[in-house]
Amino acid sequence: MVVNGVDESRQSNKVRIAKCILDCKEISKAEIASKLELSMPTVFKNIKELIQLGIVTEGNEYQSTGGRKAKGLSIVDHFMYAAGIDITRNHISYVFIDLKGNLLCQKRIRRTYENTLYYYEALYENFACFLKESGIESNKILGVGISVPGIIDAQNQMIITSHVLKVNNVSLKNLSQLFEYEVYYENDANSAAIAEFADRNRDAVYVSLSDTVGGCVYINQGVYTGEHYRSAEFGHMNLVRNGTKCYCGKKGCADVYCSARVLSCHGNGSLEGFFDLLQAGDESAKKVWEKYLEDLAVLVTDLRMVFDCDIILGGYVGGYLKKYIMDLNKKVVKLDPFDNDTTYLQTCRYEREASAVGIAMRFIEKYFDMLL
Ligand SMILES: [Zn+2]
Q: Has keyword Cytoplasm (predicted)?
């Protein structure tokens, strides 16, 4: 099952034009007409309506394609906002993004998850506080997205299971009730992938290398969820036959070798601590890192064999990988006889709060889709 896949043929011209302006950041009417193969009168009519709605603004002259000067159209970023909240075992992160998907402000508080009304109340109160501090008018919030580490039934607002939060079959309806906005839930890795793939038109696989290993398969601009919301559980693919025991009960899962914990346990429980040691040339950290990259290279080449598309490495470790990507590339090349290069392998754009930004983006997307 693919959710949020784009069926462009069913979108109105107004939606297509608004999304085109959003993607291009600045574009002229003539460029829109040529890009979307629409007549100039159709473009004029829809642009006029989008300007009247306050979503689009016509700015100064700029050099358009073809060298001619044209007036640039762009999205009014402060017109509407969306909120994103990311729940982890010990923290809650809050973000606000604007209509262009820009991260405006963020806040992270320490709070250990518990399935109690006290916890949900505290989560809401901190949100209300964050909203006040942000200065954003409350009537301009399109909705609140909440990302959770676990298997989520978004339709029924349920955590089906979460190893990280140590809960099964938890209803989140009480939490939703506290907000005066529409609330949407999604798995944290899927949410981060949405942020990473926001303005891409290519299929891709996202691998989340956090305290557990997860991922997301992104096809036709939609998330492939699987029949039981369990797709892309890359962490429980077998990496080593009869290897070390995983928390799921199996032996040799990728999670055992590629999670951020493999590194943070060598940095006094902190991933930052580990990378500080690595940076300082600590011999034992270097060995751990070498082995980690070897294992990650196996996972990456396996995924490339299955999906044959771009692979984005994100999660906590993904935020540190940019500097070391060539070392990983060398190991991947050795294992993969089918590819001539490794440009399909990329590190994440959002080094922090990708999940919260991604879940907030759902409301921006929906807002544009609903333009009548
Ligand atoms: Zn496992």
A: no
